[in-house]
Automatic annotation (TrEMBL):
Source organism of this protein record: Variovorax humicola
Domain of life from the UniProt record: Bacteria
Record's protein name: Uncharacterized protein
Length: 110
């Protein structure tokens, strides 16, 4: 006998819904990253796209942003790459530990 999924949801584990939400968000971030890379061609971009495709979690995607920045900078320049990555960067806000977020740069005064 097969039970409808709506019925099974009533008996789901408390953490399951949170985990499912995290997986859906990771999928949305991955899709946004791949969509941006798809617009560009070249071996470097395709190599990064392959790594994005197989990244295991949101943390791995966070670290791949630098590789995307490098690949896109070579094609469009750094300023354009930063503009293109800005929407993707905002998708990570509040989803990673504070220690993994961008750090403010401080100037040293001597």
């Amino acid at each position: 006998m097969v039970l409808p999924s709506s019925f099974l949801r009533l008996f789901s584990l408390p953490g399951f819904r949170l985990r499912d939400s995290e997986q859906r968000h990771t999928s949305r971030v991955r899709h946004a990253m791949l969509s941006l890379l798809q617009v560009h061609g070249g071996h470097g971009v395709q190599r990064v796209a392959q790594r994005v495709r197989f990244a295991g979690d949101l943390e791995a995607l966070w670290y791949l942003r630098q590789d995307m920045m490098s690949a896109l900078s070579e094609l469009d320049g750094e300023a354009a790459a930063r503009r293109q990555l800005h929407p993707i960067n905002s998708m990570f806000k509040g989803r990673l530990p504070d220690t993994m977020g961008p750090r403010p740069h401080q100037r040293f005064n001597m």
